[in-house]
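Let's practice the habit of predicting before peeking. Look at the sequence and jot down your guess about where helices and strands might fall. Then scroll down.
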Amino acid sequence: MYAGLDERGAQVLRHVVENYIETAEPVGSRTISKKMGQNLSPATIRNIMADLEDMGYLAQPHTSAGRVPTGTGFRYYVDYLLELRKLARPERDQLQKMAGDAAFSSEELLRQVSRLVSTLSGQACVVVLTRLSSQPLRSLSLVPAGSGRILLVAVTQAGWVEHRLIEGEGGLSGDEMQKINNYLGELASGISLQQLRVKILHEMKREKARYDRLMRRALQMGARALEEGSPTEVYVEGRANILEQPEFAEDVQKLKRILRAFEEKSVIVRLLDRALEDGAIQVSIGSENPVEGLPDISVVASGYRQGDSRVGSIGLIGPVRMDYSRVIPLVEYSAKLISSVLGHR
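Done guessing? Here is the structure:
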């Protein structure tokens, strides 16, 4: 629950947050007085800031006379005081031009969007792709991948490519592999990997006498390849932007924790999970994040779709003092652009 703020308290909080976003330094009453056009004296503003501190919206570092917003202060600002900017035309043009390149595969599109959004925002950008197993298949094939190993390659109708490695399989001639591929290809025609798994299991339960040795082998390999759920792909760009944030650069341990999180795919996926499930823009500030030990970062994320299915999410990860007025429209626009491009493939 938030303590209610009157107009003066809300405006002081807004100026403190925006000044802190800009400078990363504690904000003093004289600075706020100038920002507000001298409408309130520094003494009056000091009293208001003290009240905001008592309510949990501001904190005073012991080394400074100024104050900084708390996570609660940032949340109040985002929920009630934030004025979103319109995404600049040059930024929209850059994103549209990049997304319009027909030469990009679906995977490369996500990488390029992640790279450009990171550059435009000055933050780390993450794009998560999940639930490929629900997409209709264009083709499916088995390819020898060394001694006793076979690689299943599935291509969806939208152009996504998924690989599954099957260990302990071998001893098949080229002609036998071709027959197995023809059989599995017929089974997979027009359905998803999820549906194919169910279909294969159903076929395996039918009268075994119907199948010769090769067909049984095909079903067994298909079942093994589809045992696990669809893997999640994570594209991360702009990790180095974290190094340039003063609040991280001055605390080596804090920086290590954050950079370590970027190396764990499961952590990144959890940070963007809510956006995938909900689809709408999500802003997680500091301790609100679902991953413990990362109280100094914020995540702005949105889900994207392919047709009627939510297949992934895109998010910006940076310090709690991110410029939300600019970052939120950028993430929203990028998610809609990805959805639009994928919807036409």
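How did you do? The chain has three domains: 7-81, 89-130+232-343, 135-225.
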